[in-house]
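TL;DR need C-alpha cells for one chain.
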Amino acid sequence: MYRILVSDPVAEEGLALLQEHFRVDVRTDLPEDELVEIIKDYDALVVRSGTQVTSRIIEAGKNLKIIGRAGTGVDNIEVDAATKRGIPVVNAPEGNTLAATEHTIAMMLALARNIPQANMSLKQKQWKRSKFMGIELNDKSLGILGLGRIGREVARRANAMEMRCLAYDPFISADRARELGVELMPLDDVIRNADFITIHTPLTKETKHVINAQRIALMKKGVRIINCARGGIIDEKALLEGLKSGKVAGAALDVFEDEPPLKSPLLELENVIVTPHLGASTVEAQQNVAITVAKEIIAVLQGEQAKYAVNAPTIPSELQDRIEPFATLSEKMGRFLIQLLEGRLESVDLVYGGEIGQFSGNTRIITRHVLKGMMDPILQTPANIINAEYIARERGITIRETVTEESHGFKNLITISAKTDRMGETMSGSVLMKGISRIVSIGGYTMDMIPEGYVIVSRHLDKPGVIGRASTILGEANINIAGMQVGRINPGEEAIMVLNVDSEVPPDVMEKIRTKVGIFTARFVKL
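>> reply
TL;DR here they are.
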C-alpha cells in the first residue's frame, strides 16, 4: 500500500479521502533534517504553506511520486528540483478562489471606510466620527495586477460596485478582458491611473518587488494598495516610505515578505490594515483544497494524469479528449524515431499541421510526449512528461515547434524531424477517425503503418529479390511477419521497407539482414 506523508494541517475531508486508498501519516512541524530522514519511506507528500519542500527533501524522497500543495501557491516547494526528478507538483488552483476573492473585497472595503480603526476606537469608549471619514468605491478606478482566477472574480465584484476596472496581465487577450468588463493597459499605466491597486500574481523573479519606490512615485497621491496574493511582490521598505509621506493613503496586507511579520514597522502605522495570511482561511476553502489535492494524489498513484500539475503543461478540460489521441501518437513517434537514429541527439523540430492548429497554445503537452518517447529508450531512469523537456534542454537539445494550416492532404499531421551529430530522420503521423492513428511517412517515403509492436525498418535497393532475402532470414529464425509496408520515390533506386513482426528480433538475425546484398540499413524498433 502506498504511504502518504501529510506534514501540515489539512482538512479532515481530504485526509479521509486519502485514507480510503492509502496509509496516511500526519506529522506536522517537522524540521528539514527529520523530513530528509523519513521521506524515503513515502510515495507522496502533502503540504500547505508551512513546510519548505527543499531540494534536499526532494532528492531524499527516492520513492516520491507526487507532491501536493493544499492551496494555490507553490513558492514553498522547489519545483525545479521536483521537475528534474520527474515528480509532479500539484496544487488546488480553484479551491480557494472565492475565499481569496472575498477577502480582497473585504480588505478593500475596510481600507476605504477605516473599519478596523473605527472598531478599535469605539471599543476604547471613544466616539470620533470625523476621524474615520472614508471614501466610496463607486466610480473609483481599481487597478488589478493579474487577471487569473482570483483577479477575474475580483473584477466581477468591483464592476457590480460600479468601479472602473483597469488591469495588467500579459497573458490575457483584449477580447477576454472586455468580456470581463476590464480595460487592459501596460503595467505603468495601470499604476498611474488607479485609485485602488490590488495584486493577484504569483511571486516569481519577474514579479518580485514589482511594486517598488519607482512605481509608487508614479501613483496618484492618496492611492490605496491591497495585497492578498504573495509577500515579496511589494517592496515593503518602499511601501513604508510611501505610507509615511502620504503618497499612499493606506494599505491592506494579508501577506508579507517574512511571515510572521512581527517586527515589521508596517504594523505600527494606523493607515495599514493587516491580517495573518487569511486569504484562504474559510471552512469551505480548506475543505475544497484538501479534497482537490487528495483526488490529484489518488489519480497519479493509480496511473492517471494529474489535472493540476504546475510543472506540466495544462490542457483545458474541454480539449483533453481531443488532444489525448495526438499525445499518444506523438509519444510512439518519438520512441520510433529515436531508435532509427545514430549519434548524439542535437535538435528536434515539430510541425503541427491542419486541425491541430486549433490547439495552438496547447501543443506543448504533445511536444512533451514526443520528448518522453525519445528520452525513454536512451535513459537509465524513465522519462515522463514532467521531466522530458527538462532533460532534453539540459542535454543541449534544441526544441522547436511550428503550427501551420498545411497538412498535405490529411485532416491533421504531426511531423517530427530529429538530427544527431551523425544523421537526421523525419517521420509524419496522423490521427484518423475515432482516434485511430497511423505513421504516414518515414524519411519522405509514404506509407500507412500502425505504430504498434515490433518493427524492422530497412533502406534497400529497389531491385527484385532484395525483400525476399530479408524475409527468408526471418523465416529461418522462426519470426513471423505480421505486416509489410514498402515505399519508393524512383524505381530502381533506394526504397524503404517496414515490417511488423510478432516477436523480438535478436541482434544476430538483424546483422544477417544487414549483410545481404542490396540492404543499405536495417534497424529493429520496439514500440
